[in-house]
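Comment thread on ticket #2218

A.B. wrote:
> Attaching the input chain for the structure job we discussed in standup.
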Amino acid sequence: MSTGWRSDKAWSDKFIPEIKRILGEHLIAEASEVEDQLHNTDLVVLKLRDFRIACRVRRWNYNTPEYGGQFTIRSLRHSGRETEMQKLLNGWGDYFFYGFEKESCCRLARWTLGDLSAFRLWHQEQTKLNWGNPPGIEKKNRDGSSDFRAFKIADMPPGFVVASGDECEAVPQLDLML
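C.D. wrote:
> Ran it. Output below, let me know if you need it in another format.
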């Protein structure tokens, strides 16, 4: 792996505790009264199987009107390595957590939790409608190591956005059927 990848991963990993907290708020629920009374259960993890959650955090300067309402997925590596897009379209990943760093650093200013099954179906339908051209806007990374596709959250199908948050909002509640 390249030094750039290690450096980027080290930077983004500092957000993992906050991402885990947010995901816990949306993937753990209070048990029913019956569960509490009969089975000594106060909380239930909404889980029927293991879930794979892809996480991406962008730097604060991309949290703008132009970029703040979108998410990006790496679509081409000039090294030939498999990309996040290829892995996603091959069925890997259940959810996609996408956030923006707060300007003062080390916290998230805005985030979205997306359902990758909904994205895959939408992507497939859009590609067919566009005569084989995939949706999104293809862009090159500044360092030239890879390309990515940018997607507008507003263009996503119903059911893609599972939950979202903004530093100025209260934590949203979620009724997630897993």
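A.B. wrote:
> Thanks. Noting for the ticket: Residues 116-129 form the longest helix (14 residues).
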